[in-house]
Amino acid sequence: MGCRRRDVSTSVLYLSTILLIHFTHIIFGQNEHSACRSSPYHQVSFRARIEHQCVIVETLQQDYERDKIIRDTQMTEIMKKLTSIEKKLDGKKMSADCHELIRNGITVSGVYPVKMPLGKIMNVWCDMETDNGGWTIIQRRFDGSVNFKRSWDEYTFGFGNANSEYWIGLENMYQMAAHSNYSLRIDIWDWENNHKRMHIEFMFQTILALLEIVIIS
């Protein structure tokens, strides 16, 4: 971006320079003390005002280009760090579920990244304490912080946050079940903190079919 200047007198250029200094701190907004509203400014010829505006535009352009260089440098540094991390992780197999995590020595319950069979990486809550641990939580509800009245697409692909409440999604459950056999454990508490548990040991595909029936109904 640039401007082509016209010949003006030395006095006009001098006045333009003074006004530029006056304007620098108010380029993005004029207040009641703005130099643009002062009598001296309105006494300047229209040509001088155009010249002054050109100087301001060029100054803004220079500031933008300088900031862009800084941002590009910062982005380059970030990409270098990400590349370094990627190289360190290269060749290391990511766990497919919480069962693999506990077999690899992870024994503390919490949020962990797992890699779905098709390569998708997502965060899940792992219960590493109940019934010998290794449970990948497919639905977590305990405080009402997440609205579970959702569309079919959201129940298909999942919603919420593994750090609070979430639903892992039927598609993700299907991908997991298509590559391994799983058992289902259901824990339910009422408002008086009474607890019931159901533990089902059969093919997970059957469980998915039952869940779809429940959701649709």
UniProtKB/TrEMBL annotation:
InterPro entries: FIB_ANG-like, Fibrinogen-like_C, Fibrinogen_a/b/g_C_1, Fibrinogen_a/b/g_C_dom. The chain crosses the membrane at residues 12-29. Residues 89-195 form the Fibrinogen C-terminal domain. It is found in: Secreted. Keywords: Disulfide bond, Glycoprotein, Membrane, Secreted, Transmembrane, Transmembrane helix. PROSITE patterns: FIBRINOGEN_C_2 (PS51406). The keyword Secreted applies. This is Fibrinogen C-terminal domain-containing protein. The lineage of its organism: Eukaryota, Metazoa, Spiralia, Lophotrochozoa, Mollusca.
